[in-house]
Amino acid sequence: MTRTALFASCSAMPEGDGDEADVLPALADLGFTVRWAAWDDPGTDFAVADLVILRATWDYPERREEFLDWCESVPALANPAAVVRWNTDKSYLVELLDAGVPTVPAELVPVGEQPNWPKQPFVIKPTVGAGSRGVAKFEAAGPEAGDHLRGLHEDGRTALVQPYQSSVDTQGEIAAVFFGGVYSHAFTKAAMLGSGMDASGLYLQERLAAAVPAPEVRAVAEDALDAACSLLGILRAELLYARVDLVRGDDGRPLVLELELAEPSLGFRHADGGAPLRFASAVRQQLA
């Protein structure tokens, strides 16, 4: 039986960044017809697809409510709209902290408020954002940090302040990828702050490489996924994909930096040859 899957993208990157090249034939082998479509394309009927998979909808931060309304209008969306709503606001990091997940400390700074500035280097980022846009590192509190925070607030955006983890400079981040709630593969990401912007203008360029996470790193990634699913009231198997980005804290312990459940790059180009097959199987599972 032939089934239809739509990969949702955006007009600036209508077929993503090329990372899914090996996924399309893997899905075809399981009887799927796959095509790309920008999420806001009025000429595409997303309701007729057996499954709509968020892949490169990277222009949503400036139109988040419109994007979320669209997500809720799609009958078969992966990941589900309620998950996307929760995960596209980085205040979820505070919820993970409260749930006991080892997470980089985070302070929410709503419009008009001031943070307790960290005494070490720190990062300011918007709570709604993608591709590291609007993220800046500062060595100490001062006029530059205040100006950056004020700029976010003038745009009506809540900010998140986090102490900078120095291990990023030497070890980078490690991203653990799950399909259908099951661990698939991992890759490392070098520090992006100060990197050049991609030609699309949607994200900072990354230097990626395949990796095998240490046991304690994978354990924290698993804990983060369990906690998120508990907060959302879902089973891990209900998530087509998940990516947990981790760094080492100053004491060497792994900490969650981000939990990506909406539209993350999944690092297929840096995974083993079985990763596209595992993803295709997870897609089929979603429809079972």
TrEMBL record:
Superkingdom of this protein's organism: Bacteria
Record keyword Ribosomal protein present: no
InterPro entries reported for this sequence: ATP-grasp, DcsG_Biosynth_Enzyme
GO terms for MF: ATP binding; ligase activity; metal ion binding
Glycosyltransferase among keywords: no
PANTHER family documented for this protein: GLUTATHIONE SYNTHETASE (PTHR39217:SF1), PTHR39217
Designated name of the protein: Glutathione synthase/RimK-type ligase-like ATP-grasp enzyme
Species of provenance: Amycolatopsis jiangsuensis
